[in-house]
Specification:
This protein has 218 residues and is mostly helical. It has helices at 17-25, 28-46, 51-58, 67-83, 121-144, 162-168, 172-185, 205-215, and strands spanning 87-88, 90-91, 103-104, 187-188, 193-195, 201-203. Strands 1-3 form a two-stranded antiparallel sheet. The chain has a two-stranded parallel ribbon with strand order 2-4. A two-stranded antiparallel ribbon has the order 5-6. Helix 2 runs parallel beside helix 7 (172-185). The model is unreliable at 1-7 and 109-113 (pLDDT under 50).
């Protein structure tokens, strides 16, 4: 069940043509590098064991010649970062759970291979948490008069709120730490999750309502 505020319509955007023109003319490489610099700093804070590697990658950002180069650095950083989040889940009645669910070992990361259709409960929780933050930020972006569809780091495509996903990137590590630290302590029930015929995992309504509260950032 989606929380009520996610379904609220966007506020009427203010008429700010100069701001939008500045948005459209901004240097995407400079902005992309700044976004990932902040994301890597937040990732190092969330997972200190990966900090040395993340800091070395951050030092490569000024030399990136293109947005694709920035994405490549981000993908390398993501591999180092997610390796440090590996943990075993605790289940009630563990024999009823697929073996592949019992350890959170990886998250398919990077800007072109994000796991939109989760096949692991923890990735389903993370996806839902990101959706909560996206709902909050989209309204804030529109209220400022910016175009949520036009970003720098994420490719601008029909049907994608690219600026929204740009803005989320530096917030992901904080949300990851908030959700995963909680998830590691929980004892999960099989009824917390639903699985379709293709193996995609979603959250049952009671768990979804809990994740709404666990995912909220100031």
């Amino acid at each position: 069940m989606q929380p009520t505020f996610i379904s609220l319509p966007d506020p009427a955007p203010p008429d700010r043509p100069k701001l939008r023109m500045a948005q459209y003319l901004a240097d995407p490489l400079r902005i992309s590098a700044a976004i990932i610099e902040r994301k890597l700093a937040a990732s190092a804070e969330a997972r200190p064991a990966a900090a040395a590697r993340l800091n070395r990658l951050a030092m490569q950002l000024p030399a990136a010649a293109s947005v694709d180069g920035v994405r490549t650095i981000e993908a390398s950083a993501a591999r180092s970062y997610w390796r440090e989040w590996r943990f075993r889940l605790r289940f009630s009645g563990e024999t009823t759970f697929p073996t592949r669910w019992r350890t959170f070992a990886t998250r398919s990361s990077g800007l072109t291979s994000a796991p939109r259709r989760a096949t692991h409960p923890i990735n389903a929780i993370l996806n839902y948490g990101y959706a909560i933050i996206a709902a909050q930020l989209r309204r804030a972006i529109v209220a400022k008069g910016l175009d949520p569809a036009y970003g720098s780091l994420h490719a601008n495509e029909d049907g994608r709120s690219s600026l929204l996903w740009d803005v989320i990137e530096p917030l992901r590590p904080k949300l990851d730490a908030q959700l995963l630290s909680w998830a590691k302590q929980e004892t999960w029930k099989r009824s917390d999750f639903s699985v379709d015929l293709a193996g995609h995992v979603t959250l049952a309504d009671p768990l979804a309502r809990i994740v709404v509260h666990q995912a909220l950032l100031p």
